[in-house]
Amino acid sequence: MQYNRVSDGNLRGITASENVYVDDQQRIKPIYDNEVSEFVGDSILGMIVTLLLRQWYPHLRPNSLSEIRSHLVDKARLSDWAKMYSFDMHLNLPPSQSQLAIRLSPAVLCGTFEAYVACVFDQEQDEMMGMMAVKNWIEPLCKPYADMYNVDITNREKEFRETPKLGSLSYLNQMMVKSNLNATWNEAGGYDAITRTQSNWVETLTLTLNSNSQGTSNHGFNTDFPATFTGSSSKKKEAKEIAAFKALKVLGINS
Q1: For residue range 85-140, what is the model confidence (pLDDT) as tens digits?
Q2: pTM
Q3: Out of 16, 102, 200, 233, which could bridge 238 as a Cys pair, Cβ 3.0 to 4.6 Å?
Q4: CATH among 3.30.360.10, 3.30.160.20, 2.40.40.20, 3.40.640.10 for 169-251
Q5: In CATH, 21-162 is 1.10.1670.40
Q6: What is the per-residue pLDDT across 187-212, written as a single tens digit (0 to 9) for each?
Q7: Distance (Å, rounded) from C-alpha 82 to C-alpha 76?
C-alpha cells in the first residue's frame, strides 16, 4: 500500500520521536516528541474518515457511521497500519528503554501513525492541500475495511427500517393478554467489562400458550408454539421492538 512520504527531515524527526514514560514521576523527553503531532493527526484523521463515510454510505444513520469510524480509527487498526508501513523500525527511542517492547506497543504505534498523518498535512504548508494529501492517502487504505463493516450494518439498518420504531412491543403486550400467550425474554450483548467492547443487544422473545390453553396447536395463529423471535440493535429497546414486530407479523396480528 502506497503512502505519502514525508521528505522534510524535521517533520520526520518529530513523527518518529516517542515521548516515553519511565514511571509515574519521571519522563524521558527527547529533543522532539510527537505528542502535539499525535493530537493534530488524531483530529485530522477523524474528520477525513467522517467525511469519507458520509460520502460512501449516505444511507446510514449517524450512529452507524460512528460505529464504522470507531473500527477504522481504533488503536488496534492504527497500530496494524503503522506496522504495515514499518513505522516501528524508524522510531527514535531512548537507548535506556526496552526497544522491542516499545516498538511493539499498540499505543506507541497508534500515536506514531497519528503523528505521521499530521506531518503529511503539515508538509503541504497549506491547509486545503494538506487535507487533500491526507485524504488521498487514507481513502484507499480505509475503503476495504469500511465496506466490510458496512455490509453487516446496512443489513441491520434495513431490518430496523422495516420495523416500527415504537409501538410494536406495547401492542404485542396487549394482544398477549387477549390471546392467552406468555412471553419470556432473554438478552445478550451490550457492554463487556472484561474485553471493554460494545456489541449489539440481542433480544430473544419466546412465546408460549399459557396454562389455560391445551396442546401446542396454533389456536388461530399462523405459527405453532413455542415460537421464538430475535431482534438485534445497538440499543436494547430497539432490539425488543424488532423482536416484537417479527412476532406480530408471524402471528398474523396487524399493529
Answers
A1: 888 887 776 665 556 667 778 888 899 899 889 989 988 889 999 999 999 999 99
A2: 0.58
A3: 233
A4: 3.30.160.20
A5: no
A6: 998 877 777 777 888 999 999 987 66
A7: 10
